[in-house]
Amino acid sequence: MFNGFTPRTIDFMWQLRFNNNKAWFEANKEDFRQDFQLPMKALAQEVFERITSEYGEHGFIHKVSRIYKDARRVRDGEPYRCNLWFSIERPSEEWTSTPMFWFDLTPESWSYGLGYYQAKPMTMAKFRARIDRDPEKFEKFIAPLEKQEEFTLDGDEYKRKKEAPTAKTALWYNKKSFSLIHQQQNGKELFSPELADRLVSGYQSLMPFYDYFITLDADPEG
Predict the structure, then answer these.
(1) I want to staple 191 with a disulfide (CB 3.0 to 4.6 A). Which of 4, 53, 75, 105 is the partner?
(2) What value does the mean pLDDT of the chain take?
(3) Is 155's pLDDT higher than 60?
(4) Whole-number pLDDT of residue 96
(5) pTM of the complete model
């Protein structure tokens, strides 16, 4: 059961940022396990179980990131990540191009939402084709986002703008990849069991968007 992170979680992340080496980490490995890894796994498990109890037909799995960087990417001499995250997604060999729910904790802030690490160009081409066929339908689909303040649309845009069919679809139409994200500074909510409630509620509100995104790759016309 998730009981909240603690100030020790934040302290560990900051200390790791300034002591990112094997000797320090090995000397503080138990602090990592107790103060960072175990509460992250508890949060991931609780949120996953609550989501799958309602959306079991989606076939979700969940993953918690490792603290160790991929050895092929250790170019700055820092072998450890200063953040951890978990994801809820369908099993896929190409996880970077598959929509997923996530939660990420860094020394400064936490974020959660739904989106792609990097959508395939073909996925985005199908997305635009779907908008082109019925822009009014897509406008109605995204209308609930205008009535909430939890999530904002994020993602890199094409340098050369594409001509969207309507003004309301333009922001989506010109994304290379996208996510619906909430981000805030670390504070009291992070230390409360109620954080799990917020994530579950947020993921539930985003489920229609997940259902929309996940169909793009399988649809030959978008």
Answers:
(1) 4
(2) 94
(3) yes
(4) 85
(5) 0.94
